[in-house]
Design goal:
By secondary structure, the protein is of the alpha+beta class. It is built from 14 helices and 13 strands. It has a 7-stranded mixed sheet with strand order 1-2-6-3-7-13-8. The protein has a 4-stranded antiparallel sheet with strand order 10-11-9-12. Strand 1 and strand 2 form a beta hairpin. It binds zinc ion.
Amino acid sequence: MMMPRTALLIVSLCWMSAVSAQQAVALKSEAWSFIEARADVFAAANRTIWSAAEGSLQEVESSRALQALLADSGFEVEAGVAGMPTAFVASFGSGRPVIGFLAEYDALPGVSQAAVPTPNIGPNPEAGHACGHSVFGVGSTAAALAVKELIAAGKLEGTVKLYGTPAEETGIGKIYMLRAGYFKGDDVILSWHASDKTQASYGSTKAIVNVKFKFAGVAAHASAAPFGGRSALDAVELMNTGVNFMREHVKQDARIHYVITDGGGQPNVVPPVAEVWYYIRANDFNDVVDYFAWVKQIAEGAAQMTQTRLTQVEVQSEMHELFPIRTLAQTVHQNLTFVGPPQWDAAEKQFARATQAAFGSPQGRSYENPIALHAAVEPLPEQLSEPRASTDQGDISWFVPTGGLRVAAFGYGLPIHSWPVVAATGTSIGTKALLVAGKTLAATAVDLYTDPALLASVRADWQQTRGDAPWKTLIPEGQMAPTQVR
Ligand SMILES: [Zn+2]
């Protein structure tokens, strides 16, 4: 006679669990105490990375700050991996399971901001942590250090890794690390992100290609001899116009955006070279492949129209949609519920409220909200939401189950990639967020190390969700990571 499925599951859970639920709770408390006791160290590390505010592939000081924390604690650190000086892998322990944490630490150009609640140039006038990656990197590192302590004490068995992944904003770091063979042998990879809410992650992301188009024309005096010149900038403008007409005939979920990275020197010289940088996104990587082919045809057409040449189509990177794993999301949610949301004090709420008031007024839209800072754990979403952004974690999810959470780190309702995010993550608001994230990630890892049945069901869920579609790439074979993004 067949045993009912649930009974079978309970029997197998009891049989396979390496430690009791009570012992797991004790290990989690130990990890939480470890993180709490070092709150000042993590706050200082966040301030270092936040102040440096280094852009994609320039994260020298930020990468070094995280590596130092890990190396000082006994991790073996391999720096400059996959041809990127600011990428690294830190490992501790041996054998399985192998649980990895992702750290990001790149800032965004054009959003310099001090840790004050009104617009104000920050320590790096060029860039700021408007995506909260300074807290991201430190929160994940806190989790890795706490897990390492438990492994070192013989209380957990296996390997812990912290991946230092640069250039997330341009989708470069993890892709080239993946191409170099990293991540693939791990059992589970965990991460988190700053947000205006606290919630376990359960959703996909958009696939994307990050590509530059370069045109060559002929320079000439723009007034005295325009007939002798051919403008590469004209080709860029006509290409953009063509793509803007293409928009009518792509699926609703597509997103296409560009910036002109080279539009010529000065107006009296017909621009002999010009370059435009595109992000082409869709929910399905196969659609990205189709749209990219169409955009290339438009670029070729623009070159013909202007008697210029399309000299280069450079795929800098690409990202795939992420496979969300329900079982893992539930485990993260349970642990997040135990840890609880950040507890804000009056000054922090006042700070966030001031950013809500200051951000809205220039555009005529108010971001003022009865909630200054989100102070609850949101329920785990029942349904997958519409993917909005992209992450290079998506590609890892094609090879390893991934999961994580987001934690409130700035004023409620405010958009990411804005100055209020930089402002708040540079204060104790950011510190509290990274502590909650670090504790939740460490606790989730404890479950995965100590409960083989849970790990098996996470991997089975991933196998089923992922299916067997091959991972294809638009990046030419053998291409190394770019050394700069612009
Ligand atoms: Zn981000």
